[in-house]
Structures are given as structure tokens and as C-alpha cells.
Design brief:
- The chain has 370 residues and is α+β, with helices and mostly antiparallel strands.
- Helices cover 16% and strands 42% of the residues.
- The protein contains six helices and 26 strands.
- Helix 1 runs antiparallel to helix 2 and helix 5 runs antiparallel to helix 6.
């Protein structure tokens, strides 16, 4: 195999594929990236961790077609440190690959391409397209609520499903048991009979990175066990989480009668300031609500006390409620407008947060005892 490629092109491709490769692997070939020089003047890069696979094709000058696997992180570090604008020559023969660029020369051990595992996709009966911007919105407004608890593995991803309420819609939801994020978008053509699927956290993270470099629409194909995202140059394939996502609609409150309207930015800054002295363990902040007056306070036995009054519209009965300040700020971070509605019931009931009743995103936050 022999190919020449511009450093920036190779670096961008490798940065996408190497982040799928786990740092520690019991199977040596999983530390490698598959490099295939194709006769038509293209270089195919591929990496997998057996659950997630990325396959990217980039332009290159190919003198001799062939394929080999190379340690992904080492090759990425080499290319990253090469001078800008360099032409990188890759030559593979007899179990080695030589990387030449200017006066720099590296030789790395390789493993044969035949040993490289690939995810068998099988049939992917549901196929539809989503604009890249819509997919970004779905991810950005939900992924912060994905659980990191391995015991509740079925919460370790974004639940994507279709539903027919007032209109046919596609919904994405994520929850860790303390907060819930849900986004609703119009159902794309072809998605009407799709099964509800849970997209794993790692796949969500890699997809979001790739979306920054894509305009237009993304092809989505899925079955009960796999999902594939076609991003033009790159194709991301992932196994889905084999589990049942809980019926999250039961925790979305519908009868919260106390309405608080706030400016999300100044409210978040106030929460951030008073939570400076909150203990790392609880991060609890108390909200005391009176007519058009909200007092945020934190009392910590070790650090002292803090209080700040923030402006807001509130006309219901006075009461106090506590929240985890980090969870509250995560939600407020997603609000793009200059007003947010907080629908409250009492100090122990779930609280509904949204921009307004037309907003595609809504959030539910469980209160804390303070």
C-alpha cells in the first residue's frame, strides 16, 4: 500500500476515528485504525470498539492500493505534530507502515486487515432523513440528562421514538431519575413505523462532534438493534442499548398550578453565585418564593451561608423549594430565549421547566429537601 495525503485532511479524518478507539484494549487490533488505499484516489479510515464503528473516506493520491491496520492514537499523535501543510506519505509493507513527511520519518508495527472486526449491520428497515441542525438540537437539549449509572444501563442513552398525539412527531428523551429532558420535532418521512430505540451515550457524543462539520441532511437507518448515521464522508454505525426505556410521560406534571416566569440568564447567574458555597455532595440551593420576589439561598455547615434576591413574575401562594444547583443550571443553559416558565406544585412534586407552551423542549426536575 502506498498513498500520499495532505496533513490537514488526514488529521481531520484521524481525529474522528481515533476518538472511537478505547485507550485500554484487551484485543490488540481494537487499538488500531484500518487504513485502506482505494484505486479511485481515496483513503478509507475505519475504527471500532465492537459497539460503535466509524467509517470515513477522504481524498488522497493512491500509488498502490492496499489495506493495513495501524495503532490509532500513535498515528494521530504523529500526524498532529507534523508541520502544517506537509504532504504525508504512507507506505505499508511486511508488517510495517512508514510515515514520511518532509524530513520526518516514522515506522510503526501493523496488524493484518483480515483480523479487523466489523459490525454486521443486518437489515435496517427504517430509513429517514433529518436536517443536521435538528439532530444537533435533539442532542444538545437532551444529552446532559443521560444517566451515567451503569446499573440502570437502559438510561445510558437518548430514547428516540415516534408518537401520534395532536400530530405525528419524533421525540427524544433522556433521564437520570433526577431530571428529564424531552425534545419534540416533526416526524420525518419514513419514520412512521420505527421502533423506539435507545442510542448509547458514546454514539451520541461521537455523532455530535461529526455534526459540527456537516450541513444539509443526515441519513438515519435503524432496526431494533442497530442504528446508522450517514454523514456524507463519514458513516457512524452503533449497536443500540438492549433494554426498555421507562414510561417517562408519567413523570411529566400536567397540574402544576404555581407559575414562575424568569429571565433565565440572570436567574442562572444568581444560582451560580449562591451555589459557590454549596457542598460538593448535595449542591442544594433553596428558592423562597413570594409575590414577584425570589430569594435564592444556600446554607452549608462547613462554608457558611449565601443569599441573593432575583427578579421574577410570581403571583401564587408563597412557599419554599430546593433543587440541585448543577441540575438547575444544566437546564437553564438550554433555554435560548429571554424568558423561562417554571411550573411548580409543592416542595416535593416534580417541577416542569420550559420556554413556553410552544417550545419543542421541556424539562422536568425533581426537588431536593433543603
Amino acid at each position: 500500500m502506498k498513498a500520499t495525503i495532505e496533513r490537514a485532511t488526514l488529521l481531520r479524518g484521524l481525529s474522528h476515528v481515533q476518538s472511537v478507539v478505547e485507550r485500554r484494549n484487551t484485543i490488540p487490533i481494537l487499538s488500531n485504525v484500518l487504513i485502506e488505499a482505494q484505486p479511485g484516489g481515496a483513503l478509507r479510515l475505519m475504527a471500532t470498539d465492537l459497539d460503535l464503528q466509524i467509517d470515513e473516506t477522504i481524498a488522497a493520491s493512491v500509488d498502490q492500493p492496499g489495506a493495513i491496520t495501524v495503532p490509532a492514537h500513535t498515528l494521530f499523535d504523529i500526524v498532529r505534530k507534523l508541520p502544517e501543510g506537509a504532504q504525508v506519505e504512507l507506505t505499508a509493507a511486511e508488517g510495517r507502515i512508514t510515515v514520511n513527511a518532509g524530513r520526518a520519518r516514522f515506522t510503526l508495527a501493523t496488524l493484518p486487515r483480515d483480523d479487523f472486526p466489523m459490525i454486521a449491520e443486518g437489515e435496517l428497515p427504517t430509513t429517514f432523513e433529518l436536517p443536521a441542525e435538528t439532530l444537533k438540537q435533539i442532542i444538545d437539549k437532551t444529552r446532559f440528562a443521560i444517566s451515567t449509572e451503569e446499573t440502570r444501563y437502559y438510561l445510558n442513552g437518548i430514547y428516540l421514538h415516534v408518537t401520534e398525539e395532536t400530530a405525528p412527531v419524533l421525540r427524544a428523551a433522556a433521564t437520570d431519575g433526577h431530571r428529564l429532558a424531552r425534545v419534540t420535532v416533526a416526524r420525518p418521512d419514513g419514520a412512521d413505523s420505527m421502533p423506539g430505540v435507545i442510542i448509547p451515550r458514546k454514539c451520541v457524543g461521537e455523532l455530535r462532534k461529526l455534526l459540527d462539520e456537516v450541513d444539509g441532511s443526515i441519513g438515519v437507518s435503524l432496526s431494533n438493534s442497530k442504528i446508522r448515521f450517514d454523514l456524507g464522508q463519514a458513516i457512524l454505525t452503533s449497536k443500540l442499548i438492549d433494554g426498555t426505556f421507562p414510561d417517562y410521560t408519567r413523570v411529566i406534571p400536567t397540574a402544576n398550578d404555581k407559575l414562575l416566569k424568569l429571565d433565565p440568564k440572570s436567574f442562572m447567574e444568581g444560582v451560580d453565585r449562591v451555589s459557590t458555597i454549596a457542598t460538593e455532595k448535595t449542591r442544594a440551593v433553596k428558592m423562597a418564593l413570594e409575590r414577584d420576589k425570589i430569594v435564592l439561598s444556600v446554607t452549608s455547615p462547613e462554608n457558611g451561608a449565601a443569599a441573593e434576591e432575583v427578579p421574577g413574575d410570581y403571583a401564587a401562594l408563597p412557599f419554599e423549594i430546593g433543587f440541585n444547583s448543577r441540575y438547575l443550571m444544566d437546564i437553564l443553559n438550554q433555554i435560548e430565549g429571554d424568558s423561562v416558565e417554571v411550573h411548580l406544585a409543592d416542595a416535593a412534586a416534580p417541577t416542569l421547566i420550559r420556554e413556553n407552551d410552544k417550545s419543542p423542549a421541556l424539562y422536568v426536575l425533581m426537588p431536593m429537601r433543603v
